[in-house]
Amino acid sequence: MPRHKSYTAEDIISDVRKGLPTTSRFLDRDRSMLVVQVAQEAKQNPRVGLGFRKKGRHPTLEDLFIRLLVYRYWNLRQEQLNKECFVSSTAPSSHGLAGYLSRCYGLDHNHETASAFRCGRRLREIERGVGLEGCTIVLLSSLTKFQQLSDNEIPRITNMLLASCLPDLIENGQIMQKLLQYQKLYSTTISASTSDKTKLGKDVTPVQIQ
Fold this sequence. Notes:
Blueprint (H helix, E strand, L loop, with lengths): L8 H18 L5 H13 L16 H25 L11 H8 L6 H20 L22 H12 L1 H6 L1 H19 L19
């Protein structure tokens, strides 16, 4: 079988520099309806958003944006479960948290879901290392490469973001805030009761940054 190309931190940072203007323009348009629609579908099928690759089609920015939200959503849930492990004697071991959480939501813990949890963990690791919640929005254009990164490249990406891209991150703080608000919208929609589902349609309030 052909081996996938391995990427480096330099590849990711190059994508950040090239893709940041496109990412910013993408978020100039309100994406609330897209987020709500996908979140509602994910309530019925948790696999929604995990697979954006379709034969003969390169993932669009919309695909990548949803994938970013899904990655972060599942990792945030895993982090919450990890906290609960400290107060519950029946909680699964930390090694089995991803599989346990997958099964709780009706997902087979296969290669696809394992990759999603791994990518989410890497993104959150970068956010903690940089010290800016939501800064992984600048990685949007490089998201397809995260599965072909070694773990050793993650701290290198963090260090390179701090060393050469920090002014850009600070200047683009607005798109980070948009990501966090869309993340909240996604999580809130998934958590909404079934009886509230019909209310999350045309009346969705657009994300607004002050």
